[in-house]
C-alpha cells in the first residue's frame, strides 16, 4: 500500500500543490513501462508540486512495480546538487520488484537512459530509529547493510529539463538495482566507523576500476541519508530499506564496458563487508 513519503510537506502543500494531471501521469507511466522517452513532469512547478506529482505516480506504478518497500535519496554531494540546481538532496521510493537478487542478469538496455552507480542499502531494524539524531544512533537501529548496484533511468526525452524538481516528480529516476548479500549489523559502533572510513569501488569484470569514493562522499556519513529523510517527515518502519545515494559519479551503462561486480573495500577498521554484488551483464 502506498505510504505518503513527506507527510509534513504534503500536509501543508497538497491542497495548493499543482500536481500533474491524470493524463500526464498516464502518459509518463506508459512511456516508463515501455522504456520510451518521456516528457518531464512538473517542470515549471515547486518542490511541493513535484512531491504531489510523485505521490500520484507512485500510486500508478505500484500495480506494475509492486509495493513501496523503502526510500531512495539522491543528489547527496554538493557538486551533484549544484549541477541540478538544488541546495539539498532529493528523494523517491523503492518498489519491491525493482530490487533484484544477487546474481541477476540485466540487459544493457534496461531503460531509456540507463545508468549505473555504486550504492548501499540500509535495512531498518526497529522503529526506535525514529529517535536517532546522529549517524551512530541510526546504525544502532539497523539490522543489516546490503551492497547495492543501482540502475537508474533518466527516462526523459531529449531536450526535456533535468533538474531537482523534475527528478523529484519522477521519483529520482528509480528503475532497477541488484542487491548483494546482507551484512548483519552485529557491532553498530564498528559498522558506523567503517561506513565513514570505507572506500566504495565499482569495478568491471576485468578488474578495471570504474568509480571509487569514500563512504563520507554521501553527506559525510551514509547514515546521514536516514537522518535527512526523517527531517523531511518520513516515518521509517522496521524492514524499510534506504538507498543512501551514489558513491562517486553515475556512469552511462555503455561506459561500464563488460562490468559485472562492485566491491566495498573497508577502511582501517578491519570490517569485512562480504562478497561483491553483480552489475548488469552487457
Mean pLDDT across residues: 86
Overall SS class: alpha+beta
Percent of residues in helices:
25-40%
Distance between the termini: 34 Å
The gross shape turns out to be: globular
The biggest sheet, with number of strands, parallel, antiparallel or mixed sense and barrel status, is: 9 strands, mixed
Order of helices and strands: HHHEHEEEHEHEEHEEHEEEE
Fraction in beta strands: 15-25%
What radius of gyration results from the CA coordinates? 18 Å
Provide a descriptive summary of the structure in words.
- The chain is built from 8 helices and 13 strands.
- Helix 2 (22-34) crosses helix 3.
- Strand 8 (199-204) and strand 9 (209-214) form a beta hairpin.
- The protein is of the alpha+beta class.
- The strands form 2 sheets. Strands 1, 2, 3, 4, 5, 6, 7, 10 and 11 form a 9-stranded mixed sheet that branches. A 4-stranded antiparallel sheet has the order 9-8-12-13, with no helix packed on it.
- The longest helix is centred in the first third of the chain and has 19 residues, at 47-65.
In short:
The protein is of the alpha+beta class and 282 residues long. It has helices at residues 7-13, 22-34, 47-65, 78-84, 135-140, 164-169, 188-197, 224-231, and strands at 68-74, 90-95, 99-100, 115-124, 142-151, 176-179, 183-184, 199-204, 209-214, 241-243, 251-252, 259-265, 277-278.
Write the layout of secondary structure elements.
Blueprint lengths: L6 H7 L8 H13 L12 H19 L2 E7 L3 H7 L5 E6 L3 E2 L14 E10 L10 H6 L1 E10 L12 H6 L6 E4 L3 E2 L3 H10 L1 E6 L4 E6 L9 H8 L9 E3 L7 E2 L6 E7 L11 E2 L4
